[in-house]
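REQUEST ID: PR-0412
SUBMITTED BY: lab tech R.K.
PRIORITY: routine
TASK: structure prediction, single protein chain
INPUT:
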Amino acid sequence: MDAQKRLGDHHRLSILLWDLNISNKEAIEACGCNPRTLFRWLAGDSPVPKPVITMFELMLEKKQWTLAQSTETE
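STATUS: complete
OUTPUT:
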């Protein structure tokens, strides 16, 4: 199992946002959630919905794929 997936979802969310270089404001806009909700997720005070984790994982996969494609064409 991937080490990041063993972490709690709130840690996973934090890592995803860091890897994507997304600010809290951008994350709130992407999720369409209340700012307080994001802060509760990141603090581990509220469970992070699986679709939120999945959305940011897909965004990271797309970013990594795009970077890989751009290095192949150089």
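NOTES: Residues 2 and 12 are 11 Å apart (CA to CA).
REVIEWED BY: pending
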